[in-house]
Amino acid sequence: MTNLATPRFLLNGDTAVSAVFGDRISEEVNQTIRAFQLLLTERKVPGIVETVPTYCSLMIHYDPDRISCDRLLGTLKELAASIDTAALPPSEVLEIPVLYGGEMGPDLAHVAENAGISEEEVVKRHSAPEYLIYMLGFTPGFTYLGGLDPSIETPRLKTPRVSIPAGSVGIAGKQTGIYPIASPGGWQLIGRTPVRMYDPLRETPILPRAGQYIHFFPINEEEYRKIEAEIEAGSYRLSTRKREEVKA
User: Fold this and answer.
1) N or C: which end of the chain has fewer CB within 10 A?
2) Would you identify the CATH topology of the domain 92-242?
């Protein structure tokens, strides 16, 4: 694990501290954030309530009745000096099935036209990468992914839709992602997954986690309906695998 830089620590109110590791979005910075989060988890610092990774920082929420800000900062600085000793386990890759085009992906033709390629080629290029989940936000389980093929980058809609169905897969500029719940949005919709990224009745409501990867794979309508029925019956098992990490 490579220690990119000593983080800056910023106070966020009286119950949170941010450890800032830079000002650029990259897998290398993300690995450093994950390493720091791992060290905090292993140390089990009393008083830390939650850690929330973002593109370039890790926010640490704490209970000031259990640990003072000064004591917490001392511990954070100590751990930051040991980031390069953290051994990150291989990331998990979530295999997400997607029905591309048609009613499920009404903007696929526009994305293809914007790129100057066929709809089939858009699907091929979109479903090729393993996308790093840098962070979650906007709505529960909304993934901020990195790794979109630049050739299919497409501007947002000029007028956002009032409601986008849960499971919709879209592109907005350099980003791609999944709408976990029905919500407004301005992304170009190219497909939909039957997988529930957020389910409040599930033991773990939010399916994806920062630091995991997502790989999309195309399915047809029959497969979509079959998976949808299995999810309703509680018998569907999402396919996952371990990713071989690239050494710095």
Assistant:
1) C
2) Cyclophilin (2.40.100)
pLDDT at 191 over 70: yes
Burial of 163 (0-12, 13-18, 19+ CB in 10 A): exposed
- 248 pLDDT exceeds 50? no
Cα(38)–Cα(85) distance, integer angstroms: 11
Q: Does position 11 have pLDDT exceeding 50, yes or no?
A: yes
Q: 36, 45 in Cβ contact below 8 A?
A: no
Which phi and psi (to 5°) does residue 117 adopt? Answer: -135, 175
Question: Closest Cα partner for 191 from 206, 181, 176, 209?
Answer: 176
CATH number for the region 8-85 comes to 3.30.1360.40
